[in-house]
Amino acid sequence: MQDAGCRIFFNNSQFPILHSSLFCIFAIDINLSNMKQTTFKKIPTGQGWLALSPLIVFLILYLATSIIANDFYKVPITVAFLVSSIYAVTISKGSLSKRIETFSKGAGSRNMMLMLWIFVLAGAFAASAKTMGAVDATVNLAITFLPNSLLLAGIFLASCFISLAIGTSVGTIAALTPVAVGIATQTGISIPMAVAIVVGGAFFGDNLSFISDTTIVATQTQQCKMSDKFKINSFIVFPVAIILLIVYGILGKDVEATTTSESIDILKVLPYVAVIITAMCGMNVLLVLVIGIVLTGIIGMAEGCYDVFGWFSSMADGMLGMSELIIMTLLATGMLTMIRESGGIDFIIGNLTKKISGKRGAELCIASLACLVNICTANNTVAIITTGPIAKDIADRFGIDSRKSASILDTISCFTQGLIPYGAQILIATSLTNECLGHTAISPGSMFPYLYYPMAIGIAVLISILFRYPRKYS
Fold first, then answer.
1. Which of the residue ranges 158-172, 182-196, 252-266, 373-387 has the most confident prediction, judged by mean pLDDT?
2. Using N-to-C axis directions, what is the helix angle for 45-58 and 344-353, rounded to 10°?
3. Would strands 27-29 and 7-9 be described as parallel, antiparallel, or unpaired?
4. Read out DSSP for 142-180?
């Protein structure tokens, strides 16, 4: 962030393991001098709803149908995305070849392809680590040194700490999901609940970390210091985290782990330790995962867990296990690109910003904008980039403290991203869980009832707006 245009680089060396957003934005230019002049097209109501209708089709086809059938496996999410993507291409303007080209460019952008390579390597690492016994060794270590009653709280605390250190929710989920699944299978804890705890804790750091992309974009668009935004966020989310830590302690009081006579093989824990440490040091995401894969091969062959061909086979299984996630990501990105190109985002922003009244109304408008754009992009970083300049204009017009508006933008985007079933975080948590267990054990929707932290921070933001909290910044 050196030049006048405030060039922010989001590259793998700064944000380790997996990036916290679906599109994995690595280089974004934000011209602060032009922020207040940000404009958007006025979209007629009929065309606006038509532009948003592919998302509505997806929500009805996947969420509504699953809720009515009381079964989130009834409609495969890949099919829901396929139908809504075809619909998005069908209703868009222009020649068929042009529409397909727009869809394909969105789905196959450079940043998206980098994200897919990360998915491939993450799958290879997860499978090879599982085959050589790294997951079991790590789980045994946790069960041995943590009281059973603190296992749930321990998972949440570990997720909060790692995400705060590395600044990425998806990276935290990739590192901890296999361990959480292993603990769940040995303790009888609900697997969707264990994975949801990891997802929730991961957003703690995504919201607060100084190296999180959402924190950087929120503070830069609102022109305030990261430390000031951190203080306000702390008032809002720290009480939530402490309450949930107590709740998980209470929920885990009856947890009983399956005792194991196996000795803990520290050597097998090294791949996970190496991935976490190198990620926290800021190493390139792809290199982090490659190091993890190489370590699983060396240790696995040294310990006699598999030969070189067994290692190759486990990696291949892991990569194939990520195929559904890759398909969903491509379809979702293409569909959301069509929504943006058709004016769906402009329609939302234009309609919300004309109904502002008073400071509470202005803050609610900022939160609503970020939330709705996040739903339409499945990307909390892009949501803040899109709405940030408008939020700054609203904040200036109604005398809202820029630190408060930055906090609202960041926290509400984490709330939304933590609950949408087609966001990168939920999708990779689901894929890694099913990969670890070797069968379809959970779906994106099955985690929803257990996503306590994202729900709680959404409520906390609403309270902070309605009751003008924290007072000093309201």
1. 182-196
2. 120
3. antiparallel
4. HHHHS-GGGHHHHHHHHHHHHHHHH--HHHHHHHHHHHH
Joined tokens for residue 49: 């709803």
Peptide bond before residue 470 is cis, with ω within 30 degrees of 0: yes
Give CA–CA dist 458/471, Å, rounded: 19
d(CA 192, CA 197): 9
Q: Give the closest residue to 18 by CA, choosing from 196, 230, 177, 154.
A: 177
Q: Tokens 């994975």 — which residue?
A: 195
Determine the straight-line distance between the first and last CA of the chain, rounded to whole angstroms.
28
Nearest to 229 by CA among 384, 417, 28, 8: 384
Given pLDDT bands bounded at 50, 70 and 90, which one contains residue 263?
low
Residues with Cβ < 8 Å from 193, sequence gap 6 or more?
184, 450
Distances (CA, A) of 9 to 12, 13, 34, 215, 473: 9, 10, 19, 13, 29
The pTM of this model reads 0.69
